[in-house]
Amino acid sequence: MMGGMASEETRTETRTTTSTSQPMALRSSSGTAGESPKPAPRAWGTGLVIVGLVLTALNLRPAITSLGALLEEVRAGLGMSGSVAGLLTSVPTLCFAVFGVMAPRLARRFGPGTVVCAGMVAITAGLAIRPFLGNTAGFLAASALALMGIAVSNILMPVIVKRWFPDRVGSMTGLYSMAMALGTAAPAAVTVPMTGALGGSWQWGLAVWAGVAALAVVPWVLLVRGRGAAPVPGAGLASGSGSAPGAASASDTASASGVASASEARREPDAVRITRSRTAWALAVFFGLQATAAYITMGWMPQIFRDAGVPAGTAGLLLAVTMVMGVPLSFVIPRVATRLPHQGPIAIALGLCGLTGYAGLYFAPAGGAWAWALLLGIANCAFPLALTLIGMRTRSSAGVAKLSAFAQSTGYLISIPGPLLVGVLYQHSGGWGLPLALMTALMIPQIVVGFLAGRDRTVEEEAARRAR
Asked: N or C: which end of the chain has fewer CB within 10 A?
C-alpha cells in the first residue's frame, strides 16, 4: 500500500510542480525574513489525522442506517404516523443540503479540524439523546442535530485530505470512502441482533452508536488542542490532474494543516466563483444523480425482490451485498482515478453497470438477483469517484472547500425527489416498470455529466476564464 502511495505521490508531483516552484512553496511554509520559522511536520500529527479521518468516516452514516433497521419499532414506540416516518427518511438529504452550505464559512472562521471535531460532538449528542426524548418532535430534533454534524463533516473531509495529503488525494479519499462504506453497511447488518442482545430495547439499540461517534471526537480534540502539528510541506499544492505548475501560494501552504488555526483558515484565498465553472455544475449534478440512484437502491431494492417472489430475508441479504460492495471498491476506485488523466471512463463504466442492473431487475429480478445486486453495488461506487473528483478539480484548500460545499449541497437537493417519485410511480402503476424506467432515464445523464466532470481541468481556471 505504501508503495502505491509513493508512486502516486511521484506522479502527482510531476504533474503539478516544477523544480523551481517546490523550494518557493517550502520557503512559504517556513516563514519569510523577520518571521520565526514554523516547526517541522510531526509524524504523530499526520497519524492522528489519518485516525480521525477513518473514525469520522465510520460515523457519517450509522445515524441513518441504524434507524432504518429499527424504523418499525421506533414508529410503534413513539406513535409515529406513516407520513411522519416518510418525512423522517427524507430528512437526511435535506439536512445535508441545508447545513452543508455552512461548512466553508465555519471552516474559515474556526479551522476545518475544529469544525469536524464539533461535528463529531453533535453526532454523539444527537444519537445519545434522541431515543430517550419520548416523543416524535424530540426525536426529529435530535436526529437533525446529528445530521447537522454529519453534513458539515461530509463537506470538510475532502478539505482535510487536500490540506494534509495533497499528493495522496486518491489513496486517502479511498481510505475514508472505504471506512464510510463500512459505516453504512455494518449498522444495517448488526443493529437488530445487537438490539436483541441488549434486551430488545430499540432505544439502546440506537443509542449504542453514540459510543462509536464519541471515539471519533478524541483524535480531533488532540489535534485542535495541540496545534503544533505543523502543515505538511507542499500542502496546498494542486493535486490531481488539471493543476498548473507552481500553483502553490504562501497562503495555501501556511494553512495546509487540516487543523489549521482560525487565523490561518481566514488567510485562505476566497475569490473562487464556483458557479462560473461548468465543471463545478457537472460535478454537482453528477453528485446529485448518483445520490438519487443510491437512495433509491437502498430504499426500494428489497421491495423489488420481494415483489418478484424472493423471501424477505434473502432480499435483505441482497441489499447487504450491494452495500458491502462499496467497502473494497471505495478504496480502489479513487486510487485508479488519480492515475488517469481523464476520469470520465470510470463514470461510464459505473453507469453501464447500473443500466445492466436495472435491466436485470425488469426482465429477471428473481432469476439473476445476485448478479443484479452485485452490479448495482458497483454502480453505487460513483460516490467515492465524486469525492475524488472534488479533490482533483481544484488547486487550493479554499477551492476544494467551496467546491465540496457546492457539489454536495446542490447534489443532495437534486436527490430529494427521486426516492419519493419512485414510490409514487410504484403505488399508482402497481408494478416496477415505470419506476425502473425512471431509474434508467436518470442514469443516462449521470453518465454524461460524470464524463464532463472527469475532464482534466480545475474550477479556478474555468471561473477565471469566464470572469474575463
From this structure: C
Q: What CATH number is given for 273-468 in this structure?
A: 1.20.1250.20
The amino acid sitting at 313 is G
* Alpha-carbon distances, residue 272 vs 108, 309, 406 (angstroms): 14, 53, 12
Single out the residue of 335, 434, 320, 314 nearest to residue 380, CA to CA: 320
Give the DSSP letter string of 275-305. GG-HHHHHHHHHHHHHHHHHHHHHHHHHHHH
Query: Which residues are CB-neighbours of 7 under 8 A, at least 6 positions away?
Result: none
Residues 159-176 pLDDT 10s: 888 888 888 888 888 888
Cell 495522496 locates to: 168
CATH H superfamily, domain 7-268: MFS general substrate transporter like domains (1.20.1250.20)
Say how many residues make up the chain.
468
Please report which residue ranges of 165-201 form alpha helices under DSSP H: 169-197
278-307 and 369-379 are packed helices; what angle lies between their axes, rounded to 10 degrees? 160
pTM value > 0.85: no
Q: Which residue type is seen at 221? A: V
Residue 131 gets which letter from DSSP?
G
17: alpha, beta or left, given left = phi > 0 and alpha = psi -120 to 50? beta
